[in-house]
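Here is one chain, start to finish.
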Amino acid sequence: MQTCHVFAGTHKTGSTALQQFLATNADRLATVGHSVIGVGFDHRGHRALARSLADGGGDLLARFAAELTSVDGNAVLASELFGDVIDKPPMPDLLLQVLAGAGYRARFVLVIRPQADYFNSRYAQLVKQLRCDLAFAEWVDTQLRIHRFDYQAHFGQLFDDDRFDCVALPFDAALRTRGIVATALDVLGVTDLDPGTVDPGAVSSNRIPGQRTIEHLLALQRARPGIAGMGAAERRAVAIEANAEAAANGWDADRFNGLTTALRLRIEGHYATSNDAFAHAAWGRSWADVFAP
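Its structure:
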């Protein structure tokens, strides 16, 4: 049985860089036995396919099943959305059914980032896109109630299901130094492709803006409440202009960090018991050991 590697995030762990690498190196990967599935694949990875699976199927899923029958070797999927919806019926059962029908076994690959640092990066990205006008601490309050950030509750069952394989990689200093693409190639067992072919310009939109930029973008949204009701294209155009103004003023020399000591400790305390249970299930060690400074 062949393997379908499903790179499922989480968010803010280099997923954009990995997806760009897969897009530009699909032909080379195919020559070493790993075919990047073409159905539903674009600059955001296999997001459309993940959404189709979460919604119960449709034409995209049928085309995915058809493509699998023509793949020679292992298959590769990549989108953070797989991780978001993995415990929401009909996932993962529907994906497993399609894969098994074509002779594939799923191997989910998770990259786990401590929630406090994730929240900081995600918040900055949302403000940069003019999709959040809350202060950071207020926004964190809204995230603490979201199920998928409790890793044990959201992913813990994956390690007890013998219908597929699951590997979790800690987004620690070692992974960040090696790089997400090189790490993904290690997971695939590929040793003769250069991970340095990622175009930095293709992922620069994910760079965390500076503190002054965040303040500027928050003030803009509060002064123009109509931004919240704009369509995606119009809002994107306003965001591009506002971020360009900030860059021209040199406001991105630093990087936003809203994590005061008290807020970081609050987030870590909120997830402490769950994170430790997850770490023991995934790595056989405590969370503190895995993410030791």
